[in-house]
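User: Hi! I'm working on a homework problem where we have to compare a predicted structure to a textbook description. Could you give me the structure for the chain below?
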Amino acid sequence: MSETELCRCWKQETGAAYRDGELIHYGLKGSADISGIMRDGRRLEVEVKTGKAVQQDNQKAFEAMILKHGGVYFVARSVSNALELLQAAATFCKT
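Assistant: Happy to help. Predicted structure tokens:
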């Protein structure tokens, strides 16, 4: 990761789907929609919400766990909102 990059991130798939008539759950319940790592090594989690959607209890518990262990977690409602919050988190990077 270069010094100009704020983070590396990826989509974190979570949900359920039918396969051969059976409901299969995948991913970690409560985990954020986007996971990653900040340039200083902190874990990054971004929960994406639209409209009036709110976090579920298992998502709030996941947020608390990430924050307790020094990670970065935020809820974003738009791309511009996510970039603002990411920039704010990056200002606290150690490197």
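For your comparison, note the following. The CA atoms of residues 14 and 27 lie 4 Å apart. The chain has a mean pLDDT of 91. Good luck with the assignment!
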